[in-house]
C-alpha cells in the first residue's frame, strides 16, 4: 500500500505538497526516528508549498480575511494572548 497523504487546500499546490510530504516522511522515518539526523532537509520544499498556498489564498480573497481574524483574535500562548503576556512581563514586581 502506498503512502496516502491528504490533498492540498489548493489543487494547484498538490504537486509541491506531495514532494514535501514524501521528503518529510522519508526523513522523519528513516533519519529522525533512528537518531541519524535532526535537521529537516525538506525546509526548502516546505517554503515552496507555503508560497504556493499564500498565492492561492490571496487569489481566492481568503488571505485578507485570515489576516483580519488573526488581528482580531491572535493566537494564544499557554492560554494567554501575546498582549496578556506582554502586560505581565512589563508589570512592576510586587514586594
From TrEMBL:
> Which keywords does this Swiss-Prot/TrEMBL entry list?
Disulfide bond
Question: Short name of one Pfam family for this protein?
Answer: UPF0203
PROSITE patterns xrefs: CHCH (PS51808)
From what superkingdom does this record's organism come?
Eukaryota
Database matches in InterPro entries: MDM35_apoptosis
Q: Does the keyword Disulfide bond apply?
A: yes
- Region (Disordered), start-end ranges: 73-95
What are the transmembrane regions?
none
Give the similarity note.
Belongs to the TRIAP1/MDM35 family.
| Name of the protein in its database record | Mitochondrial distribution and morphology protein
Output the lineage of the source organism. Eukaryota, Fungi, Dikarya, Ascomycota, Saccharomycotina
Amino acid at each position: 500500500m502506498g503512502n496516502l497523504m491528504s490533498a492540498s487546500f489548493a489543487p494547484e499546490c498538490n504537486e509541491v505538497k506531495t514532494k514535501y510530504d514524501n521528503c518529510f516522511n522519508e526523513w522523519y522515518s528513516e533519519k529522525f526516528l533512528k537518531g541519524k539526523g535532526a535537521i529537516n532537509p525538506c525546509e526548502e520544499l516546505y517554503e515552496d508549498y507555503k508560497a504556493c498556498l499564500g498565492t492561492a489564498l490571496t487569489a481566492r480573497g481568503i488571505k485578507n480575511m485570515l489576516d483580519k481574524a488573526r488581528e482580531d483574535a491572535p493566537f494564544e500562548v499557554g492560554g494567554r494572548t501575546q498582549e496578556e503576556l506582554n502586560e505581565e512581563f512589563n508589570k512592576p514586581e510586587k514586594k
